[in-house]
Amino acid sequence: MQNKEEASNEGKSSRASADTVNSADRELSVKYIKLSITETSKDIGSKEDYRTFNKSTETFSTIDETNEWLKERYGGHKKDKMFVDDEKGNSHHTGFIFGFRNQDISHNSKWWLQQDWVEIREVTETPMDMEKIKI
């Protein structure tokens, strides 16, 4: 039979060894490239504004993978720079707007104008400070 101190130490040592195994198996910080894509469209000849019909995210490990994907999906389409202003009013180039004509051939639909707004960010994820989690 274990006394109170042995039981308490036993629990601590098992948690510590689990933490050690997890941190040894993977890096604490992870970096990747994230594309946030907002797809918009309007009818050809329409004076209406573009409307959002889909939002998606793509992630890549390297810039080469990112460039390859962008070239495959948007290569040859019209490309304009996309900017975001910071709190001081300075503009920062954060992505591209790709413009093209599109059609859903599976439904034999009419052609439309499409603009995909693609924001490109380098992201670093780190584990949350678990002291802040109250469960």
Gyration radius over CA: 24 Å
Q: Could you describe the largest sheet, including whether it forms a barrel?
A: 5 strands, antiparallel
Helix content: 25-40%
Task: State which percent range the strand residues make up.
Answer: 35-45%
Secondary-structure content class: alpha+beta
Report how far apart the termini are: 31 Å
Shape: elongated
Number of helices: 2
State the total count of DSSP E strands.
Answer: 5
The low-pLDDT segments are 1-21
Q: Quaternary arrangement of the chains shown?
A: single chain
Mean pLDDT: 86
Strand line-up in the sheet with most strands? 2-1-5-4-3
What is the N-to-C succession of helices and strands?
Answer: HEEHEEE
Please write out the topology.
Blueprint: H1 4-25, E1 30-43, E2 51-60, H2 63-74, E3 78-85, E4 91-102, E5 112-125
Antiparallel strand pairs: 1-2, 1-5, 3-4, 4-5
Question: Which labels suit this protein?
Answer:
single chain; about 140 residues; alpha+beta; 5-stranded antiparallel sheet; about 45% strand; elongated
